[in-house]
Amino acid sequence: MHYAIQFEDKQFDYLSLTSRKPTLKHQLIYVVEGLVTVRLGKLEYAIDKGNFFWLPANCLSALSYFPNTHCKVVEASQRLSKPFPNKAGYVKASELIIALFARLSHVPEPSEHQQVLLMAMQYELLDIMPNLQTTSLSHKLNQWHSQSKDLSIEYQMVMRIKEAEKLRLSGTKEAEIAKVLFAGSEQSYNAARLAVLGE
Questions:
Q1: Which InterPro entries does the record cross-reference, listed alphabetically (predicted)?
Q2: Per-residue model confidence as pLDDT tens digits over 137-188
Q3: Alpha-carbon distance 169 to 188, whole Å?
Q4: How far apart are CA 46 and CA 27, in angstroms?
Q5: Are residues 43 and 119 in the same domain?
Q6: Same domain, 108 and 154
Q7: According to the 3-state scheme, what is the secondary structure of the chain?
Q8: In a 10 Å sphere around its CB, with 0-12 CB exposed, 13-18 middle and 19+ buried, how is residue 31 labelled?
Q9: Do residues 152 and 115 both lie within one domain?
Q10: How far is it, in rounded angstroms, from Cα 72 to Cα 89?
């Protein structure tokens, strides 16, 4: 059943990529562990541990959930005729939003208890003020290329596989991808795919 406002607790063991499309619902994403990136226009915005990010409905975006990421998401339907913020950006969460996220993880769903907490969350969301800025990590991700050393080894590998997936989906052959991104080694490419994508 689809409620007007919903809570999801998500765990990603491997890299998970969404295609670029308009969001169907308003979303507040809270990253508990790991890293999520949001592509808006030509830039990617990094949401790392402890950060909150607002994505309004109908926002053209693509999400990348890095391996070993745990995030919590509240989604509000466009059916709710409330004046939610219409711009994407990082959010300084109130103490109540933080407490509601913590509590929502421990109540049964669907339940009346959960719906009461989500109703409180709905009113808190009306007061958030999203701010779209380029953080240091966002800057490093946007400047990344296959020779860069700015990111951790783990993030470099994920970025390499993200790039490889783009090439693969556009019809590039494995040997060519290995040549461009893995010094010609298809074995390294396949090992990286297994580690990052689980396939």
A1: RmlC_Cupin_sf (IPR011051)
A2: 999 999 998 888 889 999 999 999 999 999 999 999 999 999 999 999 999 9
A3: 19
A4: 16
A5: yes
A6: no
A7: CCCCEEEEEEEECCCEECCCEECCCEEEEEEEECEEEEEECCEEEEEECCCEEEECCCCEEEEEECCCEEEEEEEECCCCCCCCCCCCEEECCCHHHHHHHHHHCCCCCCCHHHHHHHHHHHHHHCCCCCECCCCHHHHHHHHCCCCCCCCCHHHHHHHHHHHHHHHHHCCCCHHHHHHHHCCCCHHHHHHHHHHHHCC
A8: buried
A9: no
A10: 16
The model's pLDDT over 65-74, given as tens digits with 9 standing for 90+, comes to: 999 999 999 9
Amino acid, single-letter form, for residue 163: E
**Cα 44 to Cα 68, 143, 167, distances in angstroms:** 19, 10, 18
Closest Cα to residue 56, out of 80, 24, 81? Answer: 24
What is the predicted pLDDT for the residue at 93?
Answer: 97
CA angle 23, 157, 65 (to 5 degrees): 20
Same domain, 80 and 41: yes
Q: List the domain range (segments joined by +) for residue 29.
A: 5-125
The pTM assigned to this predicted structure is 0.94
Would residue 20 count as lying in a domain? yes
> Are residues 95 and 169 located together in one domain of the fold?
no
